[in-house]
Structures are given as C-alpha cells and as structure tokens.
Amino acid sequence: NQLIRILLEAKLRRSDSLARLISQRPPRVELVERNILPEISEQDRLEARLVIGNKLDRRLSLRPTAEDLENKHILLKQTPDEIEREKEEKKKTLLRKLSFRPTIDELKERKIIKFNDYVEVTEAELYDRKADKPWTRLTPRDKAAIRKELNEFKSTEMAVHEDSKHLTRWFSLVFLWVFSILFITVIVVAYV
C-alpha cells in the first residue's frame, strides 16, 4: 500500500515538473532563431513529404509479390500446423522403410552395395615385401662374364643399318644397360 502511494507521488512530481518545463518553453519563433527547430514553411514541409512518399511508393512497387517469395521459399505456403503434420508423415514413412530394410544379399544382387563394403578384412602377418635384388650379390668376375656374353651377342646378332650407325652409341648404351639387367637376373636365377 505504501509502495503504491510512493509511486503515485513520484508520478505526480514528474507530471508537475513536465508541466513546469512546458510552461517555461520559449515560443516557436525563438526556437527557430536559435536553430533548434528548422526554418521550413508549411509548403516546403508538404513537398518534402510528397517526395518521400513517392520514393516509398517506388520502393514498394519494386518489392517482389507474395507469389515470387513463395517460389523462392522465402515465404511459406503452408501454416505451421501443416508443416508439422507433413514432418510427422515423413517420419512415419521413413520409420516404415527402415523397418523393412533389405538384406545384404538382396543389396548385393541389386548392386547397391559395392564389393569393398561387404568384404571382411582379417589381420595379416607382417613380413618384408621388398623385391629381391640378386644382381647386388654378383662378383666382379660374374659381371665381366655377363658383359662379355652380351657384347658377343650384340656384335653377331644385332646388325645396324649403315644410315643409322651415327645413332648407335647412345642406343647401344641404353640397350646394353637393359640387356645387362636382363642377363644378370637370368644368370642369378640360374645360379640360385
């Protein structure tokens, strides 16, 4: 009760002070002279309002229609109740589809599951998978024998045309290298 009385007294004091301030307010002419109120005639003010009104009309005419907003999915066509009902229907259908899922064999037959999706992977034993390099175990005598045999083969079996002899140095080096690797592996396999 006392709180209400205090609030009413404060309200009365506020209204009294507001009335006092309004009574002390200087006239409009003085406010215009002190540049507190703008000096605009009534006609100028009406013209400004007309210009602003025209701008607003132009903006509103450029605004997209409700149908455009619905097509862009900005404005919803349905009410919130319809949207909620549609969500519930989707949930029901999806749950029904999940309860009648096809087996893995059916999915394999229809080629929906890929091979790597259903293959079981088991642990394998770790071992060195590097290739064996038998030519690293050759002695200098073995290498010389291979070189000699290869050179003999090339000199007897590989005739070079006269017009292309100027190209043979590089070709023979590459060919020599390839054949030497081949023969080395053949000989190593034979020794092993």
TrEMBL record:
Does the keyword field hold Manganese?
Answer: no
Could you tell me which residues the RPEL repeats occupy? 16-41, 54-79, 92-117
PROSITE patterns documented for this protein:
RPEL (PS51073)
| Assigned keywords, A-Z | Actin-binding, Membrane, Repeat, Transmembrane, Transmembrane helix
**Where is coiled-coil annotated?**
none
Question: In which domain of life is the source organism classified?
Answer: Eukaryota
* One family name in Pfam for this protein: RPEL
Query: Which sequence ranges are marked TM in the entry?
Result: 170-191
One Gene Ontology term of the molecular function aspect: actin binding
SMART domains named in the record: RPEL (SM00707)
What family classification does the UniProt entry report for this protein? Belongs to the phosphatase and actin regulator family.
PANTHER family linked:
PHOSPHATASE AND ACTIN REGULATOR 1, PHOSPHATASE AND ACTIN REGULATOR PHACTR
Give the protein's recorded name.
Phosphatase and actin regulator
